Amino acid sequence: MRKTNSYRRKKNPYREVYALGQHISLSAHKVRRVIDQIRGCSYEQTLMILELMPYRVRYPILKLVYSAAANASHNWDFKKTSLVISKAEVSKGTTVKKLKPRARGRGYPIKRTACHIRIVLKDTSWYEYDENKEYLLCLKKMNKKKKKHEDMTDYSMYNSGGLWDKK
Predict the structure, then answer these.
(1) How far is CA 140 from the centre of its chain?
(2) First and final C-alpha spacing in the chain
(3) For the chain, which domains are there?
(4) DSSP string over the chain
(5) What is the mean pLDDT of the chain?
(6) Could you tell me which of 167, 15, 164, 34 has the C-alpha nearest to residue 89?
(7) pLDDT tier at 16 (50, 70, 90 boundaries)?
(8) Residue 89 confidence (pLDDT)
(9) Cα–Cα distance measured from residue 31 to residue 38, given in angstroms and rounded to the nearest whole number
(10) Quick one: angle between helices 28-38 and 58-75, nearest 10?
């Protein structure tokens, strides 16, 4: 049996820290709607966005973001102010199928869906010390994300049918 020399490996300064929530009894489609808005944001900005959202989905996501940040600060001594959500993934979990009894001996199918959420945080403080202006380039790469409702948020946020009115 061959021994691995883990002590010889260099520590990765670009460490990513994650938190994983499994079997959360929410639809993956509804969770993706919220996850798409926080992907690429900083930790503090993510907390503000999630605090103001009117969706039920925000509670498990908020717990996972807190958990990932606690993992980063406790295990790797990262500062919470320099954390950025680099990845946020939602995958479909198990579906529990039941039959609800109806009139005349019929059954009505009920599907209870679940999903798995993975939040990955990346520490960006090491970019600040690079002198080749790589800091700005890397932040631009992280902040490039698809904004589907960017033009809607300014003028129709508070109108009916806007971005926040979806249940």
Answers:
(1) 19
(2) 56
(3) 16-124 (3.90.470.10)
(4) -PPP-TTTSPP-TT-EEEEEEEEESS-HHHHHHHHHHHTT-BHHHHHHHHHH---TTHHHHHHHHHHHHHHHHHHS---GGGEEEEEEEEEEEEEEEEEEE-GGG-EEEEEEEEEEEEEEEEE-GGGGG-SSSHHHHHHHHHH----TTHHHHHHSSSSTTSSS---
(5) 78
(6) 34
(7) confident
(8) 93
(9) 11
(10) 50
Beta carbons within 10 angstroms of residue 32's beta carbon? 17
| 35-44, 58-67, 155-164: range with lowest mean pLDDT | 155-164
Whether 66 and 58 have beta carbons less than 8 Å apart is answered as no
User: CA 41, 45, 47, 49 torsion: positive or negative?
Assistant: negative
**pLDDT above 50 for 129:** no
Instruction: Read off the pTM.
Output: 0.66
**Cα–Cα distance, 145 to 39 (Å, whole number):** 8
Q: How confident is the model at residue 165 (pLDDT cuts 50, 70, 90)?
A: low
How far from 108 is each of 85, 101, 105, 112, CA to CA, in Å? Answer: 41, 6, 10, 13
